[in-house]
Amino acid sequence: MISTLQKTIRPVWAVRGLHKSAVEVLKRPDPEDTVTASYGRFISEVKPQHLSSLVLHRSKRMVLDSIGVGLIGSTTDVFELALQHCQHMYAPDDISSVYGRRGSRLSPTLAAFVNGVATHSMDFDDTWHPATHPSGAVLPAVLALSDMMPNSKPSGPDFLLAFNVGIEIQGRLMRFSHEAHNIPKRFHPPSVVGTMGSAAACARLLSLDHSQCSHALAIAASLSGAPMANAATQSKPLHIGNASRLGLEAALLASRGLKASPLVLDAVAGVAGFDAFYEDYVPEPLESPNDGHVFLLEEQDMGFKRFPAHLGMHWVADAAASVHKLLVGLGPGTVSPSQVQDILLRVPKSKYINRPFPESEHEARHSFQFNACSALLDGEVTVQSFTLAALRRPDLLALLSRVRVEHPHDNPANFNRMYGEVQVTLVEGEILKGRCDTFYGHWRNPLTNESLRKKFRNNAGAVLHSEQVEGLIDVVGGLDTLGDCRDLLSQLQ
Question: How confident is the model at residue 290 (pLDDT cuts 50, 70, 90)?
């Protein structure tokens, strides 16, 4: 009977009249050989000793800058709205501290959220290439989780390791896509890779095993994504807040045993995983930290902003500031719209930062025209440039009405290759030009430690006493030597 059945059952390729070689045999990959699994293993296996002295130095600068922009961000309207929402809509939970609010505490996930909002509320946080804001999505989550640990706080090296894991995962994921290298059009990158970075950092700090780390990333992928249409609005800072909060939640859920796709980072035909966010996503496994892994922060420094606006604004502001100097040299020591007939900006083509007449501080932070004219008028762009009074200055509005924009083919919307050029034609016919290829603060021309500390003092000094500001500088500077991070947490309380 069995032999008869064996004779009558034919392979599917024979039944359909196909040649055997024409049939594609689908084989489920070994769970341990996937891209997703390699990321889980990396997160679970990496140790503080895998961080070089250069990575430690650069990451401590990032932590200091991120805390500073978060502290000044706690003075903004959007932060206040987010904080009030959390305080009024959720039960009080006296665990994790809030930037700039002595005595205020929230649950860890809500603290990660509001502190993430504060960090991006003025668009003053760091920027990397491929384009994202890496620290704001990770640091608030790591701080909130550290507050959550009741007895034994993480050591300084473990804190920095978790932070660097969150940065590294973001950079690796973005390097799998050419689309991600350019100024974004569809998804705001921190809402995508930032959530993944936050999950990775928290999974590392929780000492999850490799399988749990993989699940944390997969859970985070289901909590990721925000559209670029909300750029230049009060909702854009929510992207960073949600990335920090939801990444932390993903890691906590994974720690409780929640499972998700074991192939979320792999390119699986017909089933979108992380490639739902980047159409040209081509992933590669992440090598073990024990096999000579080099952190991306070792190879490329971070970009730090000198004033609170979209990174692209720094090119046109520096170019316009150089023209300002020329104009001052020609006249009575100030710049007047009566001197100017025409202003031409040569910048990359990017719709959401091409705003001829911004009507709010958030639109102004995303306007080539506004930042060029502010620097042309004042010689620089500062925190005060975005106040309502500054936006409504008659001289500024007069200059804005004379701006034209060109998009040269050799000026791509890419933070590693773009430039900013400002050409001013005077009423008398003279033409003045300024150009910036690499502004001060770019990863190719990084801020000195002195400049970074000056920025921090100005920002943190908006809400803290000077002795607290200096205490934070000292604590962050020695973070890699601390037995636990209580000193850092107490300074922020």
Answer: very high
**In terms of pLDDT, which residue wins out, 140 or 332?**
140
Cis peptide before 130 (omega within 30 of 0): yes
For residue range 173-229, what is the model confidence (pLDDT) as tens digits?
A: 999 998 888 888 899 999 999 999 999 999 999 999 999 999 999 999 999 999 999
Query: What is the reported pLDDT for 81?
Result: 96
Cα–Cα nearest to 104, from 80, 125, 120, 73: 80
DSSP 8-state class, residue 266: S
Which residue has tokens 């990158």? 189
In this structure, the strands spanning 105-106 and 340-346 are: unpaired
Task: Return all residues near 99 (Cβ < 8 A) that are at least 6 apart.
Answer: 67, 70, 71, 73, 74, 79, 114, 115, 118, 119, 463, 492
In the beta sheet, which residues pair with residue 433?
A: 423
Query: Above 50 in pLDDT, residue 9?
Result: no
- Cβ atoms of residues 358 and 423 within 8 Å: no
Query: Rounded to two decimals, what is the model's pTM?
Result: 0.91
Q: Are strands 403-406 and 340-346 parallel, antiparallel or unpaired?
A: parallel
- Please tell me what DSSP assigns to residue 483: S
* Residue 334: per-residue pLDDT: 85
pLDDT at 312: 96
- Which two structure tokens, joined as six digits, stand for 95? 């665990």
CA distance 247 to 112: 9
Half-sphere exposure of 452 (CA within 13 A, CB side): 26
How many of the other CB atoms lie within 10 Å of CB of 429? 7
Please give the Cα distance from 232 to 228 (Å, whole number). Answer: 9
222, two tokens: 């289901």
**What is the C-alpha to C-alpha distance for residues 239 and 173, in angstroms, rounded to an integer?**
18
- Three-state SS sequence of 136-191: HHHHHHHHHHHHHCCCCCCCHHHHHHHHHHHHHHHHHHHCCCCHHHCCCCCECHHH
Q: Which of 406, 392, 419 is nearest to 318 (CA)?
A: 419
Query: Each residue of 327-368: pLDDT tens digit?
Result: 998 877 789 999 999 999 999 999 899 999 999 999 999 999
Alpha-carbon span 458 to 102, nearest angstrom: 19
Q: Which of 41, 107, 57, 114 is nearest to 84 (CA)?
A: 114
